[in-house]
Amino acid sequence: MFSRVFFLVCLFYSVVLCAEPSIGSSAPSALAPVESRSPFAFSDPLKAPCSGIPRKGVWIGNTSVAFQLDFGNGQKCAYKPFTTQMRTRYRNEVAAYRLARALGLLNVPSASTVCFDKGKLRAIINFGREARRKRFDQEVRSETKGKTWGALMRWISPYQTFSLKEAQWKPWLKKGGEVPSSSRSLAVQLSTLLVFDVLIGNWDRWSGNNLGLYPPTQMLLYIDHDGAFFYPEPPLLQKTRKKFQDVDRFSRGLIEAIRVLLDQDNQEKLISVIGEEQTGVPLLSSGAMQGIRERGIWILEQIEKKKAILGDSEVLYFE
């Protein structure tokens, strides 16, 4: 997990090949990821890609290894690499983003997988403490020609940790609860979050700084998905399911999007949405993919049960 929260680089269905980075002679310690390819161009500054060559970096990890990379052109990004401790959990950030975009959600930071030369990455990082440098050497995995894969994410400022207590917002999502007009957007985003976390199997949303707010637009930021996509799912996920079951109001559009995504007549749709990390390398395991499908079906079943008791308009309360 990050000690400071982040946002990230726009790529959907992105495939980044680990070729030799081109290093400018004027910046011998810099390193460049291989060109990333995306069919999307975002005007929203939150979705703008990190581009160019990172010039320096600083350790920002707490329980996990993570860095802030400075590209020297006003752009800063977070980078979460493949490590022996967290292994390929960096892929969760990309999978969560791709799944969110397929459902029409903008709350999950855009994420892409990239690879850097481990040695050159090490050279530009300010570790702060020697113990961190040793941890980098021991934990960060490198593959062919010393390259290490990871997730690259935009660093966002201003950022606030979401601090509204559950006792304040939960009544908005219960039958008969009054939703202030000024809080309706927030209520929709919280309801959506409860559904999304069940779908991705995320047990770790409420343990710390894993939910943020972007003040300029009041958008909730669903961040840090180290605790998602486990299969078989951990017992802790029951708390996530209970939060979902304890509320009554959901977005009609989101539920319909999940229904379309899980269409039994087109089971390749979910596979194509999650995609690959690189050619021939699926982003998620077959078990993790099965988990998404099983939890999605469970969500749809629970919605139907709630509708039978409370009525369609009360359960699918939001658009």
Automatic annotation (TrEMBL):
The keyword Signal applies. Keywords: Signal. Residues 1-19 form the signal peptide. This is PI3K/PI4K catalytic domain-containing protein. It comes from Pajaroellobacter abortibovis. The lineage of its organism: Bacteria, Pseudomonadati, Myxococcota, Polyangia, Polyangiales.
